[in-house]
Amino acid sequence: MEIMEMLGESKEYIESKLGGRKPQIGLILGSGLGDMADAIEDPVVIDYHDIPHFPVSTVPGHKGHLVIGGLEGKTVLCMQGRFHYYEGYSMEQVVYPVRTMKMLGIENLFLTNAAGCVNENWRPGDLMLITDHIKLIADSPLRGRNPDELGPRFFDMTQAYDKILITVAEKAAIKKGIAVRKGVYMLFTGPAFETAAEVRFARIAGADAVGMSTVPEAIAASHMKMHTIGISCLTNMAAGILDQPLNHEEVLETGERVKKTFSALVREIIRTWPV
Ligand code: HPA
């Protein structure tokens, strides 16, 4: 089946559950941040399993449903659980939900993730507004035949992380008294954490954070000219910076520690988001 036909079926199924509600902002919640979806008012919850052509999440700690409803005066469509390349999905499958959002008329995308901190001046628990990314791996969600209905074959990435939205986020952070960093996110495919040498390489290349998500979604969103913001919760110092091994528990623990602050920031950004 052609991608546009598949997307059309996914969109129709989701729309049939929304009772005329029109989501304005797509929100993807990263590792340990999924609880935020519980704040959504009058939620419609749709299991990924039930949506035609949707991939299904396999990671412990990642839930697999869409939550659609009100948040801070906006109607949001929230992905509680995302798809990662390391799970075995193709890049095209990883970005399938973002394309479905666009089909539903959503022009705004809020990406969140947990990431390793490469910048040695920063600390675990810091929040970073993504200003740009580095994708050194060869694969791309747009590799192969271009779905012309979604966007052009060759497309700009200089606006992938919307500068206006970064300003909105900085103002939101000041209003809430939350310190935020700004920096570059570099994609590694995982599931192994990076080596110490890879982290040194990332730093020299200009990265402030490393992680295993977000980049494919930001690329697909840019292709479709969606307005995108990305925020990383820096859950741990990246490999080799401290004299200790990395583990997923630390990622979850830090996520747990900062989730209140993080969700306060996310909510204030959504409240002030110019839709
Ligand atoms: N590396 C890659 N992804 C991550 C990390 C990390 O150190 N921490 C949380 N997600």
What order do the helices and strands come in, and which of them pair?
Layout: H1 3-18, E1 25-29, E2 41-47, E3 65-71, E4 74-80, H2 91-94, H3 96-103, E5 108-117, E6 127-135, H4 163-176, E7 180-187, H5 196-205, E8 209-211, H6 215-223, E9 227-237, H7 248-272
Parallel strand pairs: 1-4, 1-5, 5-9, 6-7, 7-8
Antiparallel strand pairs: 2-3, 3-4, 5-8, 6-9
Hypoxanthine (HPA) is lined by residues 114-116, 188, 193-194, 210-212, 235-236, 238, 246, 251.
Mean pLDDT over all positions:
94
Specify the structural class: alpha/beta
**Low-pLDDT runs:** none
For the terminal residues, how far apart are their CA atoms?
Answer: 33 Å
Tell me, briefly, the overall form.
globular
Q: Helical proportion?
A: 25-40%
Strand content: 15-25%
Rounded to the nearest angstrom, the radius of gyration is 18 Å
Would you kindly provide a written description of the structure presented here, covering whatever features stand out?
The model has no long low-confidence stretch (mean pLDDT 94). Helix 5 (196-205) links the parallel strand 7 and strand 8. This protein has a single domain (3-272), classed as Nucleoside phosphorylase domain (Rossmann fold, 3-Layer(aba) Sandwich). Helix 1 (3-18) packs across helix 3 and helix 4 packs across helix 7 (248-272). It has helices at residues 3-18, 91-94, 96-103, 163-176, 196-205, 215-223, 248-272; strands at 25-29, 41-47, 65-71, 74-80, 108-117, 127-135, 180-187, 209-211, 227-237. It has 275 residues and is an alpha/beta fold. It has seven helices and nine strands; from the N terminus they run αββββααββαβαβαβα. It has a five-stranded mixed β-barrel with strand order 5-8-7-6-9, surrounded by four helices. Residues 114-116, 188, 193-194, 210-212, 235-236, 238, 246, 251 line the site of hypoxanthine (HPA).
